[in-house]
Structure formats: C-alpha cells, structure tokens
C-alpha cells in the first residue's frame, strides 16, 4: 500500500469511527500524546480527547461527518494532510439541526504501527443552526 493510501485510510478510519462513536477506533488514529485542536483549544492525549468528543455528542440525537478526498504531502516519517468536511446532526429533543463546514489540517507521524495523527486541527468556516423541516411523505 502506498504511503498516501495508508494516510488516507487513517483519515477514513477517524471519520468512520466518529460516525459510529467507536472511540477505540478513533483513538487508534492518534499518537498517544496526539493533539486534537478545536476552536483554539489543544486537547492532548487519548484520555482527554475521547471524553471531549463524546461530551459534544451527548447533546445530539445523531451526528455525522462527511470528509472529502485529502491533499497529502509526505516528508520521510512525517506528513501533512488537509481534508474538507461537512458535519450535520439533530439536537436531542429539539427540532433543530446543526451544520458545520470546515477542514482538518493534520500533522501525522509514521510509527512502528503505521501512520497516526500527531496533531489534528479543525478550522470551521461555516456554522449553521436551523429548524428541522418535515420532508415529503414517502410511499
């Protein structure tokens, strides 16, 4: 497998794990001392990242992330990647939807076990809340 494909698979496993709330899978994409940076806050290490992610999702009935193909650059055992994402979900107990548009800027490192995030920085360029409108009847 090429190094670019291996890195894209790390990004894919992260998104898939987040969408299924499979925290062991998500944490396996980060170095043990890796950093998840969100809204200017550095959250470091598995013991801090996982509960921060899970806490956000407690306010949602459902939430999903869709990621684009990534732009990846490799320099030896280090790499960077940039991935545009769209996230959307419904607030628990409310007819209100959240949409987040942004991108991840990643620093990755190759370990004996493979590529992992040393830092995953999320930057939002769009945050929208709107009422959930009923769709057309099916059938």
UniProtKB/TrEMBL annotation:
Organism listed in the record: Novosphingobium anseongense
Segment forming the signal sequence: none
Domain of life: Bacteria
One Pfam assignment: SnoaL_4
Limits of the SnoaL-like domain: 4-121
Name of this protein: Nuclear transport factor 2 family protein
